[in-house]
Automatic annotation (TrEMBL):
<dbReference type="Pfam" id="PF13568">
    <property type="entry name" value="OMP_b-brl_2"/>
</dbReference>
<feature type="domain" description="Outer membrane protein beta-barrel">
    <location>
        <begin position="37"/>
        <end position="209"/>
    </location>
</feature>
<protein>
    <submittedName>
        <fullName>PorT family protein</fullName>
    </submittedName>
</protein>
<dbReference type="InterPro" id="IPR025665">
    <property type="entry name" value="Beta-barrel_OMP_2"/>
</dbReference>
Length: 238
């Protein structure tokens, strides 16, 4: 699925880009007036890679995070402020998995097995960012931009209300997370739509770990804070 999506995206991107760069005449676009609309709509899909940033109470071995690429999709609402600034709302659903690997030193003096050293953290986020997009002047059929703002996410897989904790094999996170986001991309004006590849970094503002009942828990006792950070690769169609 990922390979097919990447191939389709590449073909669309290459077709539009070659028309812009290798043709003497500017491509006639039916979307020439899209940037003049007060409101415009679209959708996005892409890949994500989530990580955790840990701060610790004591200087023990780091908790290692094995992250993998996840998938996301959502909608775009765009409000034109002027020729160079847009306000954007981009609600979406994001799927990701992270594995936490604990060093044996966390279990010093305790009985443990291999399963205790690994915690799988599956997350399904309903992610809602409010962003400001700052664009350059349009050059032929493309326009670079930077984007930034704040977002809130609801983790549907958080286990926050689960009465069981890590002693029963349940790793828990808070339901709500708040982020700031920064990114950049390029708008490409193709024949019938505007195609926008972009990359964005997200950084959590709040501590997300739900601590175990035991204050000396090997899984949460040494964690002062745990905050999500990640990278999004988006492909937007308007």
């Amino acid at each position: 699925m990922k390979q097919l999506l990447s191939l389709v995206t590449f073909l669309v991107f290459f077709n539009g880009l070659s028309a812009q760069l290798f043709s003497k005449e500017r491509v006639a676009n039916s979307v020439d007036n899209i940037d003049q609309k007060l409101l415009s709509w679209g959708y996005f899909l892409g890949f994500n890679s989530y990580d955790f940033k840990f701060d610790y109470n004591e200087d023990l071995e780091d908790i290692l995070v094995d992250n993998s690429f996840g998938f996301h999709l959502g909608l775009v609402g765009d409000l034109r402020i002027n020729d160079y600034i847009n306000l954007r709302l981009e609600p979406g659903v994001f799927f990701t998995t992270r594995n936490l690997r604990y060093d044996e030193s966390y279990f010093d003096g305790l009985d443990f097995n291999d399963a205790d050293l690994l915690r799988e953290v599956k997350s399904t986020y309903v992610h809602v960012p409010l962003l400001l997009k700052f664009s350059t002047k349009r050059i032929n059929n493309f326009k670079p931009f930077i984007v930034g703002g704040f977002s809130a996410a609801l983790n549907l897989s958080s286990n926050q209300d689960n009465p069981d904790d890590n002693s029963s094999g349940q790793f828990r996170m808070t339901k709500s997370t708040y982020f700031y986001e920064l990114g950049f991309g390029i708008d490409f004006y193709l024949l019938y739509f505007k195609f926008t590849p972009s990359i964005r970094g997200i950084f959590a503002l709040n501590d997300e770990i739900v601590r175990d009942a035991d204050p000396n828990s090997p899984w949460t006792g040494n964690v002062a804070s745990m905050q999500t950070r990640g990278v999004f690769i988006n492909f937007t169609f308007q």
